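Z., the sequence and structure:
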Amino acid sequence: MAKHEPDLSLLFHALADPTRRAILTRLASGPAPVTELARPTGLRLPTVMRHLSVLEEAGLIATAKDGRVRTCAIVPEALAPMRSWLDEQRALWEARLDRLDDYVMTLMKERET
């Protein structure tokens, strides 16, 4: 479970880093231990742990510890607030572009007459 409720700033911050996006891409195929996630990054384990902390704070991953092994899993539903925001922005800009298109068409018709 996430430490906090996800918000847009945390989500965008978490996804702004290519290492964190690569970790999410790996986790999309299934849960993985931290050492497996760290291996392809070439980063030291404490650095990877900081990346994982950012992802967990954004609610994008959940971690579970079994003995000495910490396993991470993606939480795909955490992206829903971001998707809703992007959908709202798309609708807003499409409406603006439609109004601009209508205005330009009106000007062209006036110029023809």
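The CA atoms of residues 27 and 74 lie 6 Å apart. The beta strands are 32-33, 61-66, 69-74.

Let me know what you think.
H.
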